TolC family protein (Flavobacterium luminosum), 416 residues
Amino acid sequence: MKNNLVTILLLILTISSYAQQKLTIEECYAFAEKNYPIAKQTNFLQQKTSFEIDALNKAKLPKIDINAQATYQSDVIGLPTSLPGVEPINKDQYRATLDVNQLLYNGGMINANTKLKEAQMLTQQQLVAVNLYQLKSRINYSYMMILLWQDQRELLLAKQSTIHSKIKEVKSGVKNGAMLPSSEQVLEAELLKLEQALTENTFQRIKELQNLAGLTSTTIKENSVLERPSTTLETNGVRPEMKFFELQQDQIEASKNIISKSNLPKLNAFGQAGYGNPGLNMLNNSFDDFYMVGLKLNWNVFDWNKSKSEKQALDIAKEIVTTEKETFETNNQMQLNELKSEISKLETIIKTDSQIILLRDKVVQSSDSQMRNGVITTSEYVTELNQLFDAKTNQKVHQTQLELAKINYQTIKGTH
């Protein structure tokens, strides 16, 4: 029977361990990059650009138009004298044509526009990456808050266990007449306060898990175990904003290339076949078919320095991007310096926390002995015990703040 009970307990523990969801902060980043609504824009931008480039390439194919018109005009061309066999031109005229235009050369404008579309797509996709990266700071906060609530729960449970053991001791003292019944009631009241704190802790953790689930657009179970992230400060890293600035510069260069090609000659071949009254022979006053073929050259040899002005405007745009990049780098470095200072401060505070906890622990041990000997009341003992656990809680808060500062440093640095 005993062996069966052990087997059942082991089975329950195994199932429970499988049911728990282990989660790392890197997995949260990956979920956000994949599932957050704005992430869908990356594929949409790719599809949009494919359609736009396909439309541009259609300009390389022949353009075919069917035209038809019927007109009546108040006057027509006429000869000063009547000639035998020549009839006056009708004032009502009819024409239907099939027109074909084929682009032969346009200075590489189609290819230039294609490259511009691709540059625009890459810039917009990188902007999506920038927006997704900015989610990391919010993920960092939620993730570390969940860990803090977990740490706090462990402290509360440890305190609860201590109170339970003290209640047993006090009950024994009350039974033997060594302590007053109120001593037990003080501890029972403290136990109820702990149950309230544990309830609040549970709901706060669930709330933060829901926030993290929303940021990552995934389902996170309430019994999920979050692993502590690495807090090593790496020196090398690249923010997606830097790539975004670079792609903006490439896009501007692609626009300048289009301007350079806009004034190059453009050559088209055309053909027209038609049927009308009159045809090409205006003196033949009857329905007739006709056709013509030819080449058409267009070359804007002078644009009043329009292209030069447009290029100068784009040069200014490049300078604006450069200043935005420099501003970003300056602000980024300021944030890193602030976090370095915060990290140093917290490391010093945590060392002091350890000293405070050591002293408070000695005070509680002394108070415990004094309570047993009736030197102090249970309330006085509880006060010292609360101060010990407050010190431990403060240390956990400071440790979490330190870890958060280090993770934010990594995020701002661009090392993950």
Remarks:
- Residues 239 and 401 are 23 Å apart (CA to CA).
- The longest strand covers residues 92-105.
- Residues 2-35+106-264+299-334 form one domain.
- The chain is about 65% helix and 10% strand.
